[in-house]
From TrEMBL:
InterPro entries: Homeodomain-like_sf, HTH-type_TetR-like_transc_reg, HTH_TetR, MftR_C. Residues 4-64 form the HTH tetR-type domain. Residues 27-46 bind DNA. Keywords: DNA-binding. This is TetR/AcrR family transcriptional regulator.
Length: 222
């Protein structure tokens, strides 16, 4: 079997050591020794020990920006939903690594602060995009900030539930949470019709009341 790439070995070694010894008690030398690489290899892959915990943050920011940039006024809500979904899918795909990160950020204040700062960056991207979509005027600045905060809160709520083992199907939970989030804001003043599609395993009769409320028309769906 071919040997794993050095970055993967470093990541696995670091998380194993953080679990065994604690984050503060683990040094870069400990990590490189466990991964069987030199210090120079470590610093080509990561800027610091902390960066091992959040290696893909900049990649995710770029992915969000690209998804939002690829939309137009008619598909803006879809773009916001799908951009947030990119982050959720990334963490779910990490599996045990995401769970280990969650444990670490709950127990190490410096890592929790880094995580919060990263979340604010995500929120700022959504806020700037929504503000432009709404026209970019002073009268829409607060509404854009509130909507961006709601999107990030909905995403984080679903992610935390999955990390705690409380959401067996995070994609379905995300769809439900985002439907509730979009419903909070109702009409945005746009004259065009925007269609947002969500997947759900619920029976249609259970979904219709929420859709009717979102559309603002109790008879819209028959």
């Amino acid at each position: 079997m071919p040997e794993k790439p050095a970055k993967q070995r470093l990541t696995e070694a670091a998380f194993a050591l953080f679990e065994e010894r604690g984050y503060d008690q683990t040094t870069v030398d400990d990590i490189t020794e466990r991964a069987r690489v030199g210090r120079s290899t470590f610093f080509r892959a990561f800027r610091s020990k902390e960066d091992v915990i959040f290696p893909d943050h900049e990649v995710l920011l770029s992915a969000i920006e690209a998804r939002l940039a690829g939309s137009d006024p008619r598909t803006a809500l879809v773009a916001v939903t799908e951009a947030a979904r990119l982050v959720l899918r990334h963490y779910v795909a990490e599996g045990d690594l995401a769970l280990a990160r969650y444990r670490l950020t709950r127990s190490v204040p410096a890592l929790r602060a880094r995580e919060i700062a990263g979340t604010r960056q995500y929120q700022r991207l959504f806020q700037e995009f929504v503000h432009r979509w709404m026209g970019g005027g002073e009268e829409t600045a607060l509404r854009a900030e509130l909507m961006a905060a709601a999107v990030v809160t909905a995403h984080n709520h679903v992610l935390r539930r999955w990390l705690r083992g409380q959401a067996a199907d995070p994609e379905a939970a995300f769809d439900s949470a985002m439907a509730d989030t979009v419903a909070l804001f109702g009409s945005t003043g746009e004259t065009e019709t925007t269609v947002v599609a969500f997947r759900t395993g619920k029976d249609l009769s259970a979904v219709l009341p929420g859709l009717r409320k979102l559309l603002g028309d109790e008879g819209a769906l028959g």
